[in-house]
Amino acid sequence: MSDSALVLDNVCKRYPGFDLQNVSFELPRGYIMGFVGPNGSGKTTTIRMIMSLARPDSGRITVLSQQMAENEIRLKQRIGYVPENHEFYSDMTVAWTAQFVGRHYPTWSPERLRELLEKYDVNPRKKVGALSKGTKAKLAMALALAHQPELLILDEPTSGLDPIVRRELLSDLLEFVADGDRSVLFSTHITSDLERVADYITLIVDGRIAASDERETLLERARASNPTASIEDLLWACAKGGR
Amino acid sequence: MNINVSPNNPIPLYQQIADQMRAGILRGELSSGDPLPSIRQLANQLLASVITTKRAYSELEAEGLIITRAGLGTFVADLGPDAIIGLKKEVVMERLEEGVRVARQLRLDDDETTRLFLQALDGSDEDV
Q: What is the DSSP letter of A15?
């Protein structure tokens, strides 16, 4: 267990009209996991529980070998989190926003941020409200990386981005895990993103985990019956089979 | 050497990587003792996952084409010219056997298959 970046063990959460049931999966350190499911299947709810923004009714969440519930602040400082909707103050500049975020992290590196903004071509003097959608996504990514986290959690990081920016982001994820110790969990419904970079895939349908395994293993199993099965086919089969 | 992979290709990604590296080694573009990029470097370069790349390497390792020395990295194995020829034959034979299997499945007689084979060698595919 100590080799895992993230372990969810039978996590349950009941909302009126929707519940997450016995969500369990494990992400080993040094790898990228894609978290896939149709809209409304529970991806964001699960991620919010990992980030302790919602409390599970039962079950355990272990992040970087520690219990989130007991070490929330210290653990969050080791996680880079990019939520689905970037909440920035649109009248403030990129530089101000960075300073505002950086105050919360003892490991914040202004040099690293400068490098990232330069690489992503984000002008620090611009107001955040004036940035394009793609540039805002890059800013969110830069802010998540500047405190040098051990685990990156991204909620739909590629949705609405053009193919060039998407590829750049995927390549950054690979670079992030290149040291063999840092890990990534990213949710998406763009299954083609997973076909390249995801080592592990967890499929969630209607609040239940339909499958969670190495991507190649999942595909191989699916290809026994359909030789050209893709992750999209798998998702389709799980979604249709469950209803 | 240059490797290109595409998730749109129905051949699994790890197979695409292994096939191209194998071809590179057998054609002599990579020679005995040449260092190969680390799994994580190559994954990054190809925009492919770490496990995919690892699998390509283990396949080539199982075939004896590359070797990993703990702490030093991965290298092209020490293959003599005879071994290279043997491996080339093995790769081609596998494809030919696949052709024979299809021919027999379709109940084409062996003389006809032989003619097709010679035609394929000529590069003339008229009257197939």
A: E
